[in-house]
Amino acid sequence: MAPNPAKAVLILGATSDVSRATALAFARRRWTVRLAGRSLPELQREAADISARTGSQVTIHQFDVLDMGSFVAFVDAFPDLPDVVMSAVGLLGKQPRAQIDLDHAREIMRTNYEGPSLILGLFAERFAARGGGSIVGISSVAGIRGRGSNYVYGSAKAGLAAFLSGLRNRLAINGSNVHVMTVTPGFIRTRMTSDMRLPPVLTAVPAELGEAILKGLDRRKDVIYVRSIWCFLTLIIRLIPEWFFKQLKL
Ligand SMILES: NC(=O)c1ccc[n+]([C@@H]2O[C@H](COP(=O)([O-])OP(=O)(O)OC[C@H]3O[C@@H](n4cnc5c(N)ncnc54)[C@H](OP(=O)(O)O)[C@@H]3O)[C@@H](O)[C@H]2O)c1
């Protein structure tokens, strides 16, 4: 993506490893970076680091995706709408706990589906009224098919992917000039997966996501998989009949 000092990106869930890498990739291209998340001290540290390394302008903003009542005021507080809004907000949670603890299950569902969908949908309406902008939502291959080991998280990611798909299709029909991109990563080596043994060939590092997201925005992609092998694997995963998928005990 070409350097453009006039452009700004807002990153929701900016304390994630993926967000840090993506923020850095934007800042290196001299975009203004707006970091939003729950912990202001952590955002402050991250902003100082990015701005020291790149010289780009970085601002921080309090944001909790579970606090839907604050969304309109959050959007209105920006003097100028950003050019790109990305949500990397997510919560893997604990599947066994979510099966018996409804509050935990609801937190996973709301953090991965309800909150990101509603805030990105709100920005999309503002972008449509302005005449352009890009929305980026991070879903997951876990949302391609319900798996016994993580279906509360996976179903919420599936919901987010369906929401973004519908939003993209509606805005395309309206000719709104709003680009909606769904990121469907496989495994990423981050804090979220630090206790998992992941196959290296299927596992991206956060910097790969940053670059893939910028490239996807440049090319106005609808859906990106980061590592192309996942594009192929998700096709297979979709095609496996349910009776056989059940036997795989995934
Ligand atoms: N790691 C993987 O293998 C993988 C694979 C596919 C998709 N993804 C998705 O990629 C995205 C980034 O994940 P990651 O691996 O970098 O995980 P992560 O480090 O756990 O990031 C999750 C982010 O969501 C934020 N968040 C959680 N609840 C929030 C809330 N109520 N309000 C605002 N922010 C909240 C966290 O903020 P705090 O710092 O405040 O907790 C953190 O910034 C997530 O959407 C994840 O589901 C990850």
Total domains:
1
What's the CATH H-level superfamily name?
NAD(P)-binding Rossmann-like Domain
* Integer-rounded radius of gyration: 18 Å
CATH architecture: 3-Layer(aba) Sandwich
Report the sheet-strand fraction.
Answer: 15-25%
| Uncertain segments | none
Describe this structure in words.
- The protein is α/β, with parallel strands linked by helices and 250 residues long.
- The chain has a single domain, classed as 3-Layer(aba) Sandwich (Rossmann fold), CATH 3.40.50.720.
- The chain is 48% helix and 15% strand.
- It has 9 helices and 9 strands.
- The strands form 2 sheets. A 7-stranded parallel β-sheet has the order 3-2-1-4-5-6-9, with helices on both faces.
- It starts with 7 loop residues before the first strand and ends with a helix.
- The mean pLDDT is 95.
- Residues 13, 15-18, 37-39, 63-66, 88-91, 111, 138, 140, 185, 187-188, 190-193 line the site of NADP nicotinamide-adenine-dinucleotide phosphate.
Question: Layout of helices and strands, plus pairs?
Answer:
Layout: E1 8-12, H1 17-28, E2 32-37, H2 40-54, E3 58-62, H3 71-76, E4 84-87, H4 95-98, H5 102-130, E5 133-138, H6 151-174, E6 178-183, E7 187-188, E8 203-204, H7 206-218, E9 223-224, H8 229-239, H9 242-247
Parallel strand pairs: 1-2, 1-4, 2-3, 4-5, 5-6, 6-9, 7-8
Helix pairs in contact: 1-2, 1-7, 5-6
